[in-house]
């Protein structure tokens, strides 16, 4: 849409806002102003919104006035910036009263006054076409070493335990030095990745200098007021952020995103897969179903009865077992593949014992192989939800990192199981740990740690063995969030930063920095090769039920012995009393 206004439109009742209003169907507006017809030298523009990218201005100037562009902009209160579309056209000479040649200038500033510089580019005519640019930002990517205020996160650790583990100070030079340093402490990797991207973007592409300010919050709305990074952007304390921020709908109302990155933000629970607690308790009963156990016991009783019947009628002068308890004990020994101490003289007894040995051999093979395979192939508990995590009995900790603790508390507001986990397992023990300490606990087992895997997986690669890496599981409680850099609402630098960010992505610089700072989940290689480490060892907890069974047996044996001694002592006393009584009667 092109709008032309003449001399009569610049009267006192001229409503500029009404005339230059935009609509959904007319998002762009072209305006031609002929200043040679305007005799009102006191007229000036009062609003900066007229110079945003939605308005394309062509201003026809008086002849030989191109030397006073700065004075003209100041007089008319035209405050330009890098996204302004303003062309000034000056006539050069005339022929028969008609202007034949023109000088056209593309003017803009690198920033609103008083910052930045006024840039005046000559637009040349080539083959009847004015200008040869494809995009206006082709020639505006050089901001002439402009200094802008930016914001990042300073001390993001220790918010839950009221401690501070980082060496970031308020000094801008020390802050820049820290963000450019690759430390083995594996901390602040999100901030360092963000700075690496924005440094390449601002210095190498835009020729821009950043003055870094810090805050301790990414920006959350509390009591209808935004804090942290977003709060500083709204108040104008910073022009854009040099820290990644998750893209969320509620933030789009007050700020805008630019230079979307490939860094995904997805805090998750990491833990080593626990073994089933029922495995160690019933490992010696699990090989057979209950009906099989009842069948074995029934067969033992039947063979005992048959054996007793045969031996009852057998005449053996060397060794004869005639008590049911002795025969039953002998049958248990046969089932356990133990030999018999008696000499069998009858064919019927030999036949029944032979059948029992064959039966015990087959049962023993099935039983022992099942136990061995059960011990060496542990049963894994699959934890796929917060409810299963709560019921698993694992200890739980949370990384003492600003955004991680914030997301955990936000999840607790909507998920009752997360709230239960925090209230009963985290807060009573103050299980807020730094990433390295939390990963060490995960290595020991029976521990779930809520952390940002993008940094914690560096510690996993450093500390875990290959076998332990294969046991590692991950439980995200939210979807992965796409991240980007924040700019002020209606910022003139949004498009410029976005174009520069795409350039870094296309040239591979962003992927290179991602590989340096973003840790990926370790791959399991122990399961593909057989090594000494990959072999499973049977621990004491796997056979603890056997020791308990033996201990109970020892206790029952001792109690039985004491009862036998007491009964035997009482019997002897009774016999002695009867003997003394009979002697007295005889006298």
Question: What does this molecule look like?
Answer:
The protein is of the alpha/beta class and 587 residues long. It has five domains: 137 residues, no CATH class; 121 residues, D-Maltodextrin-Binding Protein, domain 2; 100 residues; 94 residues, D-Maltodextrin-Binding Protein, domain 2; 42 residues. The strands form six sheets. It has a six-stranded mixed β-sheet with strand order 1-2-3-4-5-6, with no helix packed on it. A five-stranded mixed β-sheet has the order 19-18-20-17-21, sandwiched between helices. Strands 14, 15, 16 and 22 form a four-stranded antiparallel β-sheet that branches. Helix 2 links the parallel strand 3 and strand 4. The protein is rod-shaped, with a radius of gyration of 43 Å.
Radius of gyration: 43 Å
Give the overall silhouette: rod-shaped
The tally of strands reads 22
What is the end-to-end distance? 146 Å
Blueprint (SSEs and pairs):
Layout lengths: L1 E4 L10 H4 L9 E6 L20 E6 L8 H7 L9 E11 L2 E12 L8 E6 L1 E2 L2 E2 L15 E8 L18 H8 L9 H17 L2 E8 L5 E2 L2 E2 L1 H8 L4 E2 L3 E2 L8 E4 L5 E2 L2 E5 L4 H6 L7 H23 L11 H12 L11 H30 L9 H6 L3 E5 L2 H13 L1 H11 L5 E2 L1 H10 L2 E5 L1 H11 L2 H5 L1 E5 L4 E8 L5 H13 L2 H9 L26 H43 L1
Parallel strand pairs: 1-2, 2-3, 3-4, 9-10, 9-13, 18-19, 18-20
Antiparallel strand pairs: 4-5, 5-6, 7-8, 11-12, 14-22, 15-22, 16-22, 17-20, 17-21
């Amino acid at each position: 849409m092109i709008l032309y206004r003449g001399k009569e439109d610049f009267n006192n009742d001229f409503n500029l806002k009404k005339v230059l209003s935009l609509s959904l169907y007319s998002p762009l507006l072209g305006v031609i102003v002929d200043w040679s017809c305007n005799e009102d030298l006191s007229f000036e523009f009062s609003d900066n919104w007229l110079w945003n990218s939605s308005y394309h201005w062509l201003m026809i100037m008086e002849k030989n006035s191109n030397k006073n562009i700065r004075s003209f902009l100041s007089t008319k209160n035209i405050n330009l910036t890098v996204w302004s579309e303003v062309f000034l056209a000056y006539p050069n000479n005339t022929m028969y009263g008609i202007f034949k040649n023109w000088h056209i200038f593309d003017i803009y500033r690198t920033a609103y006054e008083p910052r930045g510089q006024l840039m005046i580019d000559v637009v040349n005519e080539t083959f009847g076409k004015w200008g040869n640019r494809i995009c206006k930002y082709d020639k505006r990517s050089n901001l002439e070493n402009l200094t802008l205020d930016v914001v990042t996160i300073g001390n993001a650790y220790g918010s839950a335990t009221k401690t501070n583990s980082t060496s970031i100070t308020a000094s801008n030079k020390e802050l820049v030095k820290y963000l450019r340093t690759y430390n083995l402490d594996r901390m602040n990797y999100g901030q360092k990745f963000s700075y690496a991207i924005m440094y390449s973007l601002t210095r190498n592409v835009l020729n821009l200098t950043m003055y870094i300010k810090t805050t301790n919050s990414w920006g959350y709305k509390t009591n209808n007021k935004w804090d942290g990074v977003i709060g500083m952007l709204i108040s104008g304390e910073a022009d854009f952020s040099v820290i990644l921020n998750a893209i969320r709908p509620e933030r789009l109302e007050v700020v805008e995103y630019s230079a979307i990155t490939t860094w995904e933000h997805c805090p998750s629970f990491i833990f080593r897969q626990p073994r089933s607690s029922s495995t160690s308790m019933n490992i010696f009963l699990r090989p057979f179903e209950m009906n099989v156990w009842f069948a074995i016991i029934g067969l033992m009783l039947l063979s005992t009865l048959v054996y007793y019947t045969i031996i009852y009628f057998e005449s053996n002068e060397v060794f004869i077992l005639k008590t049911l308890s002795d025969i039953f004990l002998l049958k248990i020994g046969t089932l356990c593949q133990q030999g018999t101490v008696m000499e069998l003289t009858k064919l019927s007894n030999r036949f029944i014992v032979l059948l029992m040995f064959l039966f015990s051999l087959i049962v023993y093979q099935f039983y022992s192989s099942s136990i061995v395979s059960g011990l060496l192939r542990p049963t894994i508990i699959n934890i796929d939800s917060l409810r299963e995590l709560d019921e698993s009995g694992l200890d739980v900790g949370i990384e003492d990192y600003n955004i991680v603790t914030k997301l955990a508390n936000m999840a607790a507001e909507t998920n009752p199981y997360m709230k239960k986990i925090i209230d009963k397992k985290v807060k009573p023990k103050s299980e807020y740990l730094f990433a390295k300490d939390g990963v060490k606990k995960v290595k020991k087992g029976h521990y779930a740690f809520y952390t940002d895997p993008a940094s914690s997986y560096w510690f996993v690669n450093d500390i875990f063995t290959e076998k332990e890496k294969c046991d590692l599981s991950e439980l995200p409680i939210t979807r992965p969030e796409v991240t980007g850099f924040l700019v002020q609402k209606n910022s003139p630098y949004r498009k410029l930063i976005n174009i520069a960010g795409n350039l870094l992505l296309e040239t591979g610089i962003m992927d290179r920095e991602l590989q340096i700072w973003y840790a990926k989940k370790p791959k399991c290689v122990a399961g593909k090769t057989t090594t000494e480490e990959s072999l499973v060892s049977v621990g004491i907890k796997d056979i603890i039920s056997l020791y308990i069974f033996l201990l109970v047996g020892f206790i029952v044996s001792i109690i039985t012995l004491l009862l036998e001694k007491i009964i035997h002592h009482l019997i002897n006393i009774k016999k002695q009393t009867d003997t003394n009584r009979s002697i007295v009667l005889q006298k």
